[in-house]
């Protein structure tokens, strides 16, 4: 199983980025997908999750209304559209796959990508 995250970079506060995560080696529609992030010196935290059918989503309060998670099951990809970005969004962002419905708990995700760095300048 491989999850390949991409799309990170440097953006100014108020700007936007779109992260992508390409999955291979798993039955994509058997898994809910999530995005997590880890800032320097901090623990990994939940960002957003989407059900296997894309019918349900759930967001951390810190990103609600600014970030949108989506998926394309035909392409085996999950996306995170990040708008109105803030310096506190700076972190390494990870995509993850897990069988538990819309969980925010990282131990319940079975597979993880390598992470992509997002830096928001003030």
Description:
- This protein is mainly β and 122 residues long.
- The chain is 0% helix and 50% strand.
- It has strands at residues 2-6, 9-12, 17-24, 32-38, 45-50, 57-59, 67-72, 77-82, 91-98, 111-112, 116-121.
- Strands 2, 4, 5, 6, 9, 10 and 11 form a seven-stranded mixed β-sheet that branches. Strands 1-3-8-7 form a four-stranded antiparallel β-sheet, with no helix packed on it.
- A hairpin with a 6-residue loop joins strand 4 (32-38) and strand 5.
- The mean pLDDT is 96.
Q: What's the SSE blueprint?
A:
Elements: E1 2-6, E2 9-12, E3 17-24, E4 32-38, E5 45-50, E6 57-59, E7 67-72, E8 77-82, E9 91-98, E10 111-112, E11 116-121
Parallel strand pairs: 2-11
Antiparallel strand pairs: 1-3, 3-8, 4-5, 4-9, 5-6, 7-8, 9-10, 9-11
What's this, in brief?
With 122 residues, the protein is an all-beta fold. It contains no helices and 11 strands. Strands 2, 4, 5, 6, 9, 10 and 11 form a 7-stranded mixed beta sheet that branches. It has a 4-stranded antiparallel beta sheet with strand order 1-3-8-7, with no helix packed on it.
The value of Rg in angstroms is: 13 Å
Q: What sequence of helices (H) and strands (E) makes up the elements?
A: EEEEEEEEEEE
Q: What count of helical segments does DSSP give?
A: 0
First-to-last CA distance: 37 Å
Total strands: the figure is: 11
The SS-based structural class is mainly beta
Shape: globular
Strand content: over 45%
Low-confidence stretches are: none
Instruction: Report the mean per-residue pLDDT as an integer.
Output: 96
**Residue share in helices?**
under 10%
Biggest β-sheet, characterized?
Answer: 7 strands, mixed
